[in-house]
Each structure stands twice: as structure tokens, then as C-alpha cells.
Amino acid sequence: KGDDYAARVYVLFDYPLEKLSLFTRMKLKAVELAFGTKIPTAALNYVWDNQHTVGTLRPNVYTDRARMIVVESGATKAGTWQIETRDLAADFRAAFNEEPPAIVGVALATDTDNTGETTTAWYGDVEFLPRDSALQ
Questions:
Q1: Which secondary structure element, helix H or strand E, spans residue 110, and what is its range?
Q2: CA 86-89-91 angle, 5° bins
Q3: Contact (Cβ atoms closer than 8 angstroms) between residue 112 and residue 119
Q4: Residues 71-111: tens digit of each pLDDT
Q5: What are the angstrom distances between the C-alpha of 117 and each of 1, 57, 109, 112, 114?
Q6: What does pTM read for this prediction?
Q7: CB 21: neighbour CB atoms within 10 A?
Q8: C-alpha distances in angstroms, 97 versus 25, 58, 93, 101, 118?
Q9: pLDDT tens-digit readout, 19-71
Q10: Are 14 and 101 in contact (CB under 8 A)?
């Protein structure tokens, strides 16, 4: 329901405005005027999802400027620490069919406002490493 996820890591990108349609630019400007802040022009959302299988890549229900990538699914691993390793450039290419722009932010969220349920998620350090770097 909506876009609730037990755990979510947003990676926000500085997608060039001139590449967006006039309508999309107008929507972004309206949000900026209404809330007094600019919103990212592209985002990957790595989510723990109970409805879709691991590896599912789908659009966000509210905007075509964000893509959801399921990295965990179901309750089997609930209550245990998980380490996720992703190739952000490859994920961006798969999601948007072009080269990734610069990363401008990272956000962590646990969200249940649409389902009305409760959940707890713990987040550890988020690191960005060169692609061929070994996770230590």
C-alpha cells in the first residue's frame, strides 16, 4: 500500500533539469514553491519489501523520478543485521537507462504511514567504496 517499507535507503542524484520535460520541471518548481526546498531530480530507493522479490526494480508509486530496488524481502532475515553491497552506477543505468549524475544525498527511512502498521529498523554505517574495493 502506498510506498511503505520496513527499511529504505535513498540515494539522491543531481539529474540535470534541462533533461526533464517541461511538465516535470513545473512540478518540481511547484514543490519548491510550496515547501521552500528543492527536491532531488532522481533517486534510487533500496528497500526491504514484503510484496516483491529481491531484485525487483520498479517505479515509485508517486513519481517517475525515483526507482525502487528490492534488496530484501519477507520476514526470514528480520531481527538480524544485513550487509548490502550495490553498484550504484549499474543500478542507475538499469533504472534510468543512462549514466548516473553526481550523488547529492543519502537518506534512511522506515515508513508505515500508509499501512498504519508499526516496525523498527536499525541502520549501520553507509559507505561508498570504489567498485573493486573489498568490503572489510
A1: strand 103-111
A2: 60
A3: yes
A4: 999 888 888 999 999 999 999 999 999 999 999 999 999 88
A5: 11, 24, 15, 6, 8
A6: 0.86
A7: 8
A8: 20, 13, 5, 12, 35
A9: 999 999 999 999 899 999 888 899 999 999 888 999 999 999 888 899 999 99
A10: yes
